[in-house]
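Subject: Interface between my chains keeps coming out wrong

I've been trying for a while to get a sensible model of this assembly. When I model each chain on its own everything looks fine, but I need the whole thing in one frame so I can look at the contacts. Pasting all components below, labels as-is. Any help appreciated, I'm running out of ideas.
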Amino acid sequence: MKAVKAVALAFFGLCLASCDAGPKSSLGFRLPDGDIEKGKATFVELKCHLCHTVAGVELPPPEVAPPVLVNLGGQVRNVRTYGELVTSIINPSHHLAKGYKKELIQVDGKSRMTDYTEVMTVRQMISLVAFLQSRYEVILPPVK
Amino acid sequence: MRYKLSIILIVLLVILLLACGSGAKSGRGFHMPEGDPEKGKIAFIDLKCYECHAVKGIELPSPSGSAQVMVPLGGETYQIHTYGDLVTSIINPSHRITRSYPKEAVEEDGKSKMLNFNGVMTVQQMIDLVEFLQSHYKFVPPEAVN
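Reply #2:
Try treating it as a single job with all components included. I did that and got this:
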């Protein structure tokens, strides 16, 4: 019985810790609503389509062939949160895309994605996030 | 008795898990790149934030006096101001409006009176502002009461 209590306590601790309320944490993060259509326009304006396709969205064909086209949107097992999408846009090295050859998407452990933080407005970021989030579809794993 | 306890435990666990908030609009996975507090101070002045905000311990240009209320930022706090909190306060000020002032001074129709800077502020300015502001909060844990 004591062991059960200890396990329960440890589990509680883990649950609390996983919320991670440190100064650099995401706690309290809440984006204002974005405009999906404006997000799509921003996507093309900032030329994201030169290196990314978006599931179910028609975009101008890239004028220059990129080393690799990284697909966005489509079916995923876990919901893509606003937090994750913002991070991918403004801090792409934090979490590199899976399923691609390392040398194609990173140099010295850093993402090869261009840094847009100096040219992108906050509103563009918010619209982009709303646009991208709308293109992901969460599917449940197949029942065996 | 044991049955009741397990129910309470399960309910508590569910609440805890929900509190983490991992829905589509949640901040789960948000990780800001490092900002530059010096550039953040410059952005603070460029965007004229000082017209309505003083920052504890920082010398800023004097406001023109058009603000109805000055909302000071920084200083000692019992609650950690996370990057998440600060980003939200800057780009989505109506989400959580300060409660230290009379409502009519800081809000109108439930919206914050703070100007919306999202159309003119670059993402880099936002990052630097967050870094600047966070460096001026000092977390003071509440003193234990015997």
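Reply #3:
Confirming on my end. The first strand of chain B starts at residue 75 and ends at 77.
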